[in-house]
Design goal:
It is built from 16 helices and two strands. The chain has about 325 residues and is an all-alpha fold. The chain has two domains: about 60 residues, no CATH class; about 240 residues, MetI-like fold (Orthogonal Bundle), CATH 1.10.3720.10. It has a two-stranded antiparallel sheet with strand order 1-2. Helix 6 packs across helix 10. The radius of gyration is 27 Å and the shape is globular.
Amino acid sequence: MKSAGTANINDETALLKPGNDKKGIRYYFKRDGQLYSLLLIPLVFVLVFKYAPMFGLTIAFKDYKIASGFWGSEWVGLDIFKDLFAKPDFIRAIRNTLLLNILSMIFGFIMPIVLALLLNELRGVFFKRINQSLLYLPHFLSAVIIGALAYQLLGEGSGMVNNLIEQLGGTRIPFLQDDVNWVISYVAIGVWQGMGWGSIIYLAAISGINPELYEAATVDGAGRLRKMWNVTLPSIRPTIVTLMILSLGHIMGGSFEQVFALANQATTEFTTTIPVLVYRWGIENGSFSRATALGLFQAVIGVIMVLIADRIAKKLGEDGLI
């Protein structure tokens, strides 16, 4: 015969089963109505500005004419993509986009981690906050301002850096007027602008590490560098892997604003990227179908790269994204 305590436990377990939950959706809307109303605003924003414009992707499969509109333009299927892949500028844009993004990802991904590790080691709270504020500031500057600053500092004719080099007896360096130097300057400026903001997530991850791990490492005689290598980095590895996967989704994208702001007539070899080509074809030349097809190609490749990176991360024992 079952005891009263066992019967009560069985009754409570039965009530917790999904099939016994009689509360409908109206109950949860009534209980959490304020939370759902707050969720409604960003949901509408995403639907209107993210999903609704996807209807325009049909332009990539039509000979789009503004006068004819979406429905009146002739459907041509994959002819736009065949024409796109045959363009010399397309291959050139793919090469330049991959080159700039791979270099930016290598250096731009490592530097926020290094910066977060260094900031975490600062003991003076006031000094640490001042450094963080100064390092975050470039992220909030527009690409136009960054480009203007770059030409004021690195310009070959009247740049402050070249003026200093000349006063010290050196030869002026075409930082932004030579193709190879332009690539180096582009990557360096991007790293400088983004590393402070990128370190925020890593600092948040570091703050969640159990202090007892550092105490145990101290007892074992580990110094600061050894603690970074054996405690901090392994503890934030899931965060590093997640951000790496997300960054691979932009491998075929890149910053149109930064390239456009730093481009000039002397450097044309590496300034034709996919976002720049979309702008030229779509805005300057009015080839909306070709520009849309290029943008769609870029987005599909980005999704594929994220899925591949996620699968590789799971094979290596990480959680991944999906």
